[in-house]
């Protein structure tokens, strides 16, 4: 099994691409292995079919250079009531792929599944490091170094930003792979996603970029304080404008 450097979880296929598609593409370009784990197949979505959404997800993963895309097939709109067995399945993914850094949706979001997903990932990250915790597979304990939250629909002042100025084209291409979700057609149901949603996402990343002096940035919240050895030893980029 491929060990991953970054592993991003989403409630539905397209969540990760919305929040941090450019960040994944940048890390792939830098030689890192990244993965996406979708908890559900989004079977209750207003547009498209499960089969089509899966094909779109695979295409988006190829565009971003994702090394592994995992589908857990948990029930759409059922994440809030996930069982201990289902949490163990998520924990097994973390232990199996051993990511250094894990990502989840920011909990404050208009879609309840996104907040529920965040809670499940918090549980799984903690469980993964407990030696005596039994997950869905017989795997040794492993604890990622950090858990970050990415934004889908919400907006907060981010704790951390990633300069993705050279990777927004990849992000847009990956999002447009989900034609059933983002492209309005004669037969499509009118949803927030079919009403210039990609433009709204780009405006957010442009604003994040402006705040740190770059063209585009994707923002993240931290689950715990970030430790630096000292304030002059790192490679932090400061906004001098």
The low-confidence parts are: none
Q: By helix and strand content, what is the structural category?
A: alpha/beta
* Helical content (DSSP H or I, runs of 4+): 25-40%
Number of helices: 7
Sheet-strand content, in percent, reads: 15-25%
The gyration radius over C-alpha positions equals 17 Å
Provide the CATH topology.
Answer: Rossmann fold
Count of individual beta strands = 7
Q: What form results from the Cα inertia axes?
A: globular
State the name of the first-level CATH class. Alpha Beta
Protein name: LmbE-related protein
GO biological process, one term: bacillithiol biosynthetic process
Organism: Halalkalibacter akibai (strain ATCC 43226 / DSM 21942 / CIP 109018 / JCM 9157 / 1139)
GO molecular function: deacetylase activity; hydrolase activity, acting on carbon-nitrogen (but not peptide) bonds, in linear amides
Describe the structure in brief:
With 241 residues, the chain is α/β, with parallel strands linked by helices. 37% of the residues lie in helices and 16% in strands.
């Amino acid at each position: 099994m491929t060990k991953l450097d970054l592993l991003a979880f989403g409630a539905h296929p397209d969540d990760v691409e919305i929040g941090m598609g450019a960040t994944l593409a940048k890390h792939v370009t830098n030689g890192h292995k990244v993965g996406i784990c979708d908890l559900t197949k989004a079977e209750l979505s207003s547009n498209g079919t499960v089969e089509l959404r899966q094909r779109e997800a695979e295409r988006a993963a190829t565009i971003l250079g994702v090394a592994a895309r995992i589908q857990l097939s948990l029930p759409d709109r059922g994440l809030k009531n996930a069982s201990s067995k289902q949490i163990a399945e998520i924990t097994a993914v973390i232990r199996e792929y051993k990511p250094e850094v894990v990502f989840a949706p920011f909990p404050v979001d208009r879609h309840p599944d996104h907040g529920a997903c965040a809670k499940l990932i918090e549980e799984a990250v903690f469980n993964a490091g407990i030696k005596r915790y039994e997950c869905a597979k017989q795997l040794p304990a492993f604890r990622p170094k950090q858990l970050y939250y990415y934004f889908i629909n919400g907006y907060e002042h981010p704790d951390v930003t990633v300069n993705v100025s050279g990777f927004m084209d990849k992000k847009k291409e990956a999002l447009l792979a989900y034609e059933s979700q983002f492209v309005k057609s004669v037969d499509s149901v009118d949803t927030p996603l079919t009403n210039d949603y990609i433009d709204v996402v780009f405006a957010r990343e442009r604003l994040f970029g402006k705040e740190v002096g770059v063209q585009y940035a994707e923002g993240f919240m931290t689950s715990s304080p970030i430790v630096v050895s000292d304030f002059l030893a790192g490679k932090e980029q400061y906004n001098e404008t």
